[in-house]
Amino acid sequence: MTVTIPSDLEVTTGFVEGDGERIYYEITGSGTALVLCHGLGGNHAIWWRQLDRFAAHHTVVTWDQRGFGNSTCVTGDFGPAPARRDLAALLDAVCPEPVHLVGQSLGGWVALGFALVQPDRIRSLVLSTTLAGAAGEETDRFVAPGVPVRSRRRHPVLSEAFCAEEGDLAVLYNQISSFGPKPPAPAVVATMRADTFPAAALAGLQVPTLLIGATDDRYCPPAVIRRVADAIPGAEFTELPGGHSAYYETPGAWNDVVLDFIADTERTGRR
Q1: What is the pLDDT of residue 7?
Q2: Within a domain: residue 261?
Q3: What torsion, rounded to 10 degrees, do the Cα atoms 74, 77, 78, 84 define?
Q4: Which tens digits make up the pLDDT trace of 27-84?
Q5: Residue 39 neighbours by CB distance under 10 Å
Q6: Measured between alpha carbons, how far apart are the two ends of the chain, in Å?
Q7: What's the total number of domains in the chain?
Q8: Does residue 174 fall inside a structural domain?
Q9: pTM to 2 decimals?
């Protein structure tokens, strides 16, 4: 794929205020809107390996969930459900037209739940390395035994191979991940495990959907993600190399898969 990447990108920043919180966002590029929902280890800045590519085609919106990055969490209410309310407020403010919505890990719960409730606001849906939509007992995998401890050059959501080969990028991941007061990880995971979706709801989803698994993902096995794809009419599934943070570890392949899927939905007009 030949891609023209802008030599310089203007960035618009701002906050959406409501529900007792201030939710931070950034807007980059031009074209149909593409909104990225980060995982438990991330925030708006974690998408730096996507922005140049995506902004060559789209208006890219990155944002911080409550307590992550620059967003507040003064109410103490966090997790997928309030994040979906914040996402609705964000789209009301900056994206009046339907958007392409991408959710990774925790962000998958946010994106899938939003698409189920407000499908008319979604052009396409991408769920990457997430157990959103899986049976409740499958989400127990988020509390996995034997997960490597976090250190300066290692993070549990990065594969051991990546950390060994790309230690500096692992350091950067850790630094970005440290931004914000962040709700306690076990408490956030508990909200994810409690946030389930009925099989009938998945079967009724009429939004073009792509699910992405990663071969070495210790948290979200590709086989489980494939079962979620099978439960959504017309959903596509692809498996990429790497660990739970495939978008960060193998951005070239991940970006290609996401952009090709979005371009296909725009070309065919699928809804």
Answers
A1: 57
A2: yes
A3: -110
A4: 999 999 999 999 999 999 999 999 999 999 999 999 999 999 999 999 999 999 999 9
A5: 28
A6: 25
A7: 1
A8: yes
A9: 0.94
45 lies in some domain: yes
Q: Which whole number is the average pLDDT over 74-103?
A: 97
d(CA 221, CA 138): 9
The torsion region of residue 133 among left (phi > 0), alpha (psi -120 to 50) and beta comes to left
Instruction: Retrieve residue 140's tokens.
Output: 């127990």
- pLDDT value, residue 152: 84
Q: Is residue 222 part of a domain?
A: yes
The CATH number linked to 51 is 3.40.50.1820
The whole-angstrom separation of Cα 261 and Cα 239 is 14
**The two structure tokens encoding residue 67:** 């307590």
Tracing tokens 């390395």 back to the chain, one arrives at 129
Please give the pLDDT value at position 76. Answer: 95
Measure the CA–CA gap between 88 and 99, rounded to whole angstroms: 12
Task: Give the domain extent around 157.
Answer: 11-268
What distance in Å separates the CA atoms of residue 214 and residue 137, rounded to the nearest whole number? 20
pLDDT in tens, 1-34: 344 555 578 999 999 999 999 999 999 999 999 9
Q: How far is Cα 235 from Cα 229, in angstroms, rounded to an integer?
A: 5
User: In degrees rounded to 5, what are phi and psi of residue 236?
Assistant: -105, 155
